[in-house]
Amino acid sequence: MHNEDTFDQESDELFEHHRIKVDPGQKALRIDRFIFDRLPNASRSKIQGAIKMGFVMVNDREIRPNYKVRPLDEIVISLPEPPRDNEVVPEDLPLDIVFEDDHLLIVNKPAGMVVHPAFQNWSGTLVNALAYHFTTLPEIKNNEGRPGLVHRIDKDTSGLLVIAKTETAMASLARQFYDHSIERTYWALVWGEPGEKRGTIDVNVGRSFKDRRLTVAFPEGDFGRHAITHYEVLKDLRYVSLVKCNLETGRTHQIRAHMKFIGHPLFGDTTYGGDRVLKGTQFSKYKSFVDNCFKIMPRQALHAKSLGFVHPVSGEFMQFNSELPQDFTEVLERWEQYVQYN
Fold it and tell me: Which residues make Cβ contacts (< 8 Å) with residue 333, sequence separation at least 6?
């Protein structure tokens, strides 16, 4: 039986996937932890399995699972299957197209769909669907394998994406994102009530040093990249708040990291600690209500609500809006009723 956290070795031939040179100043660290920190999409148990099977070599030698990396070690990870190339396999998957012309299209992405193929998600992505429906989408240099994409949203975030259909559209939209002139509004359900009904979070964000899968705030500004989120409370529901967020910059997990930084993680966000009761009592009726909401929407409560930009050819400013998906709407209505009757 196949287990996603183990490697299936079907042949004796191994193919190099990763080669890592350890920094001169690296402190002693178990090799599984060291690799885990540098390959954010690989699970710890999968890495340990690879080490036990001899797929990880250090300085051309097999090592034990408790080996500790040393400065200037050369680590090579090889697997029984060759690395994926940048070829995207077209898949006949449904696309919710909000708008389309000869130059671009606006897609409403459902929660649960990965935007582009990557490690552990080679199929079923938005890009696989785009490759099926559109055969000649352009690509940005050094971003091969992601045709049409000029931005992305997280797997479990729903909402609007703009896709370029021509080189001209790709260049124009990419420039607008670079200049931060694209208008992007997200709606989020967050724990608690922000003290200020409106505010701006101007705090650097970047990869966590402890866990590379997380984005964290660096309030001193000494690490990370400049990030600005403007927010406004739309509904105050005592235990949670519906918040509108406008992105001035578009860093990875920016809203999720910024809202956690100000003490209001997104409701249901397992990665950033929003998947447990953070506001309110612990009595069983309330906890049962919250757990039921988590079951209805087993993801972070974040939706890319609107998108505004200048059309690459006509020069006209275009604005697109989307409705909240059913799971988000249902959870929001339940909170409104709970607050009203309790």
Answer: none
